[in-house]
Amino acid sequence: MAARDVFHEAVKQALIADGWTITDDPLIVRLGSIDMFIDLGAEKLIGAEKDDMQIAVEVKSFLGASLVNEFHTALGQFLNYRFALQQKQPSRVLFLAVPLDIYMSFFSLALAQGVVAQYNVKLLVYHPETQEVRQWIS
């Protein structure tokens, strides 16, 4: 299993504060002989009909030397995880969790905006210090 992201616990607490129940930590999705470890699985009761929404969240800190390389890695993981979820848990929606400061700086650039739009990357923007969800971007 891969090491947890630096902000894993902050995102987990932000989800709980936002009304989500953590169901998996990590969420393991087996596709053939490959186990994929998505950081978090969660669900939330939605509306009067008592339906629940299920999500998976891949947490990224973007603390490496190159934001572009971090973005390449995050995008590759996101696409692979989304494919696996579509095969095994098609009702679960995948989000890429990114820190607020990185969202405001790097994700405002044309490259990131274009790729996020082209590949329909759903984002969860979080504040690591206050452990808050700041924005859901679908």
Largest sheet: 6 strands, mixed
Terminal-residue CA separation: 28 Å
User: What name is given to the CATH topology?
Assistant: Trna Endonuclease, Chain: A, domain 1
The backbone outline, from C-alpha atoms, is globular
Layout: helices, strands, pairs:
Blueprint: H1 8-17, E1 21-24, E2 27-31, E3 34-38, E4 40-46, E5 51-59, H2 67-88, E6 93-99, H3 100-105, H4 110-118, E7 123-127, E8 132-137
Parallel strand pairs: 5-6, 6-7
Antiparallel strand pairs: 1-4, 2-3, 4-5, 7-8
Walkthrough of the structure:
β2 and β3 form a beta hairpin. It contains 4 helices and 8 strands; from the N terminus they run αβββββαβααββ. It has a single domain (11-137), classed as 3-Layer(aba) Sandwich (Trna Endonuclease, Chain: A, domain 1), CATH 3.40.1350. The chain has helices at 8-17, 67-88, 100-105, 110-118, and strands at 21-24, 27-31, 34-38, 40-46, 51-59, 93-99, 123-127, 132-137. It is an alpha/beta fold and 138 residues long. Helices cover 34% and strands 35% of the residues. The strands form 2 sheets. A 6-stranded mixed β-sheet has the order 1-4-5-6-7-8, sandwiched between helices.
